[in-house]
Design goal:
The protein is of the alpha/beta class. It contains 23 helices and 16 strands. An 8-stranded mixed β-sheet has the order 1-8-7-3-4-5-6-2. It has an 8-stranded parallel β-barrel with strand order 9-10-11-12-13-14-15-16, surrounded by 5 helices.
């Protein structure tokens, strides 16, 4: 039995066999083929199996993520049918007596070299597709399993070095009971997706992928951040009891689904959900969301080969607004760059992409992309309570520039007789320290603020939240962060404006008492965090925690802040 400690990323207990989501060893011994026709037959069989798998994955993706996201697998299927690729592989087998693995490797490398040398970024990205598809074929030639999360058909715990958004998007909750990774933190994409899917997860274990083997029995404790490998029977029974207790707790939380959110002293609070697609709205409503505090529109643009049309965007935004039936919906305009790139756009390679040409900076220089999104949003506004939010705003000029585009598109639509709501609120994400410091000036012009703590913390502390070496500096409870949040809330309230928080800190049980005391109006979080937060708020007094504000802001360290709040909440 081996017990690893990591970061509890998503609540719950999972007990199942390990499924390694890692690329297998694809090495082989090169030699001359004894029978070229046999090698061609092996190749044809590996191609056929690969096509069958990709068709299955494509269908899963289509059902779960929509047509646009499934198109990437259509592209992979086209590669397997491309005579310009398959022909040369067969020629190497027949002309050079190469074994199928070597013929595949040499031909693919030739193609990859050509694609990677191209000036067009989209074509360079196709090199990665060719390598991905060829690895699948090679795995079948070698007779080793190729990992495919979409094809999992038994109860498992997924083990990986890390999980990409596309990996997690393919996970089927019916079979994937939890996951554990070597790297990551509470704000990594895999952790955020785990909370959205309501799958227990522990990240940042450092060595889980090395210390487990396929089929090992694994317990993932997403409550306390432990992963137990090959536990003894007593440990299994103890965790089954913990699993039962957590299920009972969830049933209690479920009773609050249709209840309003208020504190122990009767103060109203708004609990909202963060979503990435229109399909996420159902989970938000099932978990009692009173609003959508962050609709990440970049997912409309990702996993496809071309820009979504204005009409396609309009339909997506309209769907979300209609499903929310008059409840507020904060839509964030396109936020790409940093770690979110689009294959079909030639974004520049940068030394520090998180500090570079991204989000509103990209949109303001690409009107042909930004204006259609604004038009789609404005058209959709007639179908619900829309609030538009611009990301990565650093200066007032950026906000004014973006709002000018919005006003121009609104006037153009109205001139054409298109209905546009007259109550659209326009706000900004506060994720850059300069904006938090200048909140008083911004508050005079924006309708609301939404604090994006994931970036605000890493920019304030100069610590990459994905870098394990400096993860100790990613401190949500540091008095410096609390001071910035306090400054934003004070400035907004002075102008009669509201403040939300859509970063992961907004759903953090440790942070909720602090944020309540600072006067936060809206807490936006993963859907599965809403009911626990509603339950927690019922036990907290807003007035009491507001009285601690000066004490918290005057403390020296995050540890002091946490100890103080824990002491006070224990008494609540």
């Amino acid at each position: 039995m081996n017990n690893l400690t990591g970061i509890a990323a998503a609540n719950g207990i999972a007990i199942a066999k390990a499924y390694h989501l890692v690329l297998p060893d694809l090495s082989y011994t090169n030699k001359q083929a004894d029978d070229p026709q046999m090698e061609i037959d092996r190749l044809e069989q590996a191609l056929a199996i690969s096509k069958q798998e990709l068709e299955t994955i494509k269908n899963h993706a289509k059902i779960k993520m929509g047509d646009a996201q499934a198109e990437i697998f259509s592209a992979h299927l086209l590669i397997l049918d491309d005579p310009e690729l398959i022909g040369p592989i067969k020629a190497k087998i027949t002309d050079e007596n190469a074994i199928a693995e070597a013929a595949l490797d040499h031909t693919v490398q030739d193609f990859v070299t050509i694609f990677e040398a191209m000036d067009n970024a989209y074509m360079r990205e196709r090199a990665a597709d060719i390598k991905d598809v060829s690895n699948r074929v090679k795995a079948h030639l070698l007779g080793v399993a190729f990992p495919d999360p979409a094809l999992i058909d038994e109860e498992v715990v997924v083990i990986a070095h890390d999980l990409t958004p596309s990996d997690t998007a393919q996970l089927n909750k019916q079979f994937v009971k939890g996951f554990a990774t070597d790297i990551g933190g509470r704000t990594s994409h895999s952790a955020i997706m785990a909370r959205s899917l309501d799958i227990p997860a522990v990240v940042g274990t450092q060595h889980i992928s090395e210390q487990t083997s396929q089929g090992d029995l694994v317990i993932v404790d997403g409550i306390d951040g432990h992963v137990i490998i090959n536990p003894d029977q007593d440990t299994v029974e103890a965790y089954k009891n913990k699993q039962t207790q957590f299920a009972a707790q969830k049933e209690e939380w479920a009773k609050l689904k249709d209840e309003p959110t208020y504190t122990a002293d009767g103060e109203d609070v708004l609990l909202a959900a963060n979503i990435g697609t229109p399909d996420d709205v159902e989970a938000a409503l099932e978990n009692g969301a009173e609003a959508i505090g962050l609709y990440r529109t970049e997912f409309l643009y990702m996993g496809r080969s071309e820009m979504p049309s204005e009409d396609e965007q309009y339909e997506a935004y309209k769907t979300v607004l209609e499903k929310m039936d008059g409840k507020p919906v904060v839509v964030r305009t396109l936020d790409i760059g940093g770690d979110k790139n689009l294959d079909y756009l030639e974004l520049p390679e940068e030394m520090n992409p998180f500090l570079g040409f991204r989000a509103i900076r990209f949109c303001l220089e690409n009107e042909h992309i930004f204006r259609p999104q604004l038009r789609a949003l404005l058209r959709a506004s007639a179908h619900g309570h829309l609030q538009i939010m611009f990301p990565m705003i650093a200066t007032l000029d950026e906000f004014r520039h973006a709002k000018k585009y919005l006003i121009e598109e609104k006037e153009s639509l109205q001139k054409d007789g298109v209905e546009v709501a007259d109550n659209i609120e326009v706000g900004i994400m506060v994720e850059i320290p300069s904006t938090a410091v200048m909140a008083k000036q911004f508050a005079k012009e924006v309708d609301f603020f939404s604090i994006g703590t994931n970036d605000l913390i890493q920019y304030t502390m100069a610590a990459d939240r994905m870098n394990e070496r400096v993860s100790y500096l990613y401190q949500p409870y540091n008095p410096a962060i609390l001071s910035l949040v306090h400054n934003v809330i004070e400035a907004a309230h002075a102008e009669g404006k509201w403040v939300g928080m859509c970063g992961e800190m907004g759903g953090d049980p440790q942070a909720i008492p602090m944020l309540l005391g600072l006067g936060l109006d809206e807490f936006s979080m993963s859907a599965t965090s809403i009911l626990p937060a509603r339950s927690q708020l019922l036990s907290l007094s807003q007035k009491e925690f507001a009285s601690y504000t000066d004490t918290l802001l005057g403390m020296d360290t995050a540890e002091e802040v946490v100890a103080f709040v824990n002491h006070k909440t224990a008494k609540a």
